[in-house]
Amino acid sequence: MSTAFQQSTRITMNSTKSRRKVGPASAAENGAESADKLEQMLLSSAICNNEDLGPFIRKAFSSGKPETLHHHLRHFARSKESEIEEVCKAHYQDFIMAVDDLKSLLSDVESLKSALSDSNSRLQSVAGPLLSSLDAFLEARTVSVNVDLALQSLATSIRLIEVCARSNHHLSNSNLYMALKCLDSIETEFLDKTPSSTLRRMLEKKIPAIRAHIERKVSKQFGDWLVEIRVVSRNLGQLAIGQASSARQREEDLRIKQRQAEEQSRLSLRDCVYALQEEDDEEDNHGDSTNGFDLTPLYRAYHIHQTLGLEDRFKQYYFENRKLQLTSDFQVSSMTPFLESHQTFFAQIAGFFIVEDRVMRTGGSLISKIEVENLWETAVSKMCSVLEDQFSRMQTANHLLLIKDYVSLLGVTLRRYGYPVDALLDVLSKHRDKYHELLLSDCRKQISEALAADKFEQMLMKKEYEYSMNVLSFQLQTSDIVPAFPYVAPFSSTVPDCCRIVRSFVEDSVSFMSYGGQLDFYDVVKKYLDRLLSEVLDEALLKLIATSVHGVSQAMQMAANMAVMERACDFFFRHAAQLSGISLRMAERGRRQFPLGKARDSAEEMLSGLLKAKVDGFMTLIENVNWMADEPAQNGNEYVNEVIIYLETLVSTAQQILPAQVLKRVLQDVISHISENIVGVLCGDSVKKFNVNAIIGIDVDIRLLESFADNQALIFSEGDANQLKKALAESRQLVSLLLSDHPENFMNPVIRARSYNTLDYRKVVTISEKLRDQSDRLFGTFGSRGAKPNPKKKSLDALIRRLKDVS
To answer: Which of 210, 244, 566, 590 is the most exposed place for a label (fewest CB within 10 A)?
Structure first.
């Protein structure tokens, strides 16, 4: 211990000596070179702060002075040695004491070492067998762990094989979703735990292949469904439109029953309610017949793609394919007339959107409402374009009506599913005028054919159904009593034929206007009905009267037909009002004059003209009248007897077919013509002079005609008979004036207005000047030439002079 102390003392002293030797040299050097001193200070500071000395070393070598750096480092080391030496001087006594303590412990360490050696020997002898047992235990445990691991691997492999078998079973049974679930289970539960790397590689290769196979298979099934759904859509659309047609027909039948109930007042309120409930039940029974189409393949494909994580791609694929199908449905074949293909065309589109409505409501997010609305807007635009094009080409009203009816049914069908159809209805409304023009043209042809086939013979009906079909169906009957059969109608076959044409026009017009979005369309139907009657039928009848009526019987039949047509026109407007849903009271309020008035007047004028011609033939016998007769004719002149016989025969025949008012107008015109003829003969050049006996004979003739008019009161009313007598007013007033005792009263305005208002004073002058009598018997009996003149003759002469003065 003392030796160590001496050695440390020498080291300290040597260090001190060395520090003392270096110190003056360094100081001298630092004093000589201030730069080296600064660099040494920086190096010392860096070493004390444990900084990186790399920059100092690079700088020394780059400047080519590594000796300076080495010198600085040695100087720093020597400075630290002196510090060590000072520390050792301060604690050397403690070091000596510590060395003494260590020496005292050497004996204890030796004893401990001996004890440890003995313990180790005993431990080695005891632990030897234990170590052998431990080795055997460890080996057994390793074997056990390996066996457990093998068992776990086998169990995992068995469950994996079972899942694979289930997956194969589901694939073979086309249970694709369950097969995918098995694949997901294999990936999540078994793939990472599979002990066999070969099996793992096989699974990693086959699972994507199986998924691709499932995707291809379900895509093929979806493709087959896309092909099948087109046929299903067409049938579905036809079925849905057929149901709408059936519902409309039931509504029409119900309205017919209601109209019959209103007209006949035979059904009670309870019966009506029962009928309504029955129709509703029937409609409910047929309401779900469009629900039978199968969307399972679509939803299976959608679900599988969702499971595969390809939902968005499938939705896009579905939408694009359906859009392409819809575009294909828009194609109109140029090889087939649109009239034959329009039902298939519209049914296909209707079925398409019925399917899309179901998919939108039950398919989750497969297709959105906005996408369906966009497809519908495209479809409506295309259908409107097709309709515009096809309607512009059509020249047959019935074809246009058929397509319009089907389009309106399409609108009713799709409106039930929430699709707006106003644009389609607007297209139909826009072609309303064209349809009615075509319909008028068709009716013009039909009416011309019907009138051309008329034989101007009364229609014979042998059976009650003929009476119902030709009379009751147009309300042409004048009595509610069914006549005995065979029944001879007062009209010819033209009347029911024309009635059928007009009724068909009304029904077609109402059919076109109905279900077209316009609720109150009676005014439109009435406007076109007026045109049909006044422009088409009336003109056709006028042409027929002017070209084909040549005899009295034909003219009489034509006049009878026009009288019946007047009742028929009332029926037409009532029928149009009923079909349009307008009350008869409102329809009656808007009635106009008889639209066939020109034809009726022409028929009556034609009949009157022919009768006047016949009468003129008998009136030629007036030439046989002795105008200077010695005695008046007591029983009337020959001509009037012939005329009355003809008129009586005419009346007996005409009253069988002509209505009383028509016959009255015709007779009044003929009798007025006879009166004008009588006055015309007296005023004409054929009669140079006449005496009072001739006038008395004419008075008898007029009395016979008046008696004939009075006898017609049995047929007409008394007022009508008086009007017939008034037709003879001119001839009656003329004869009364010539036979009057005071003919100058004709100049009295009051008497003239009351008794001679139909006479023309010029005719009175002309006829009065012809009144002569050589024996002056007209004004009484004169005894001789020198006797006083008769005051009646003087009055007549004065009248003649005054009338001449006025003229």
So the answer is: 590
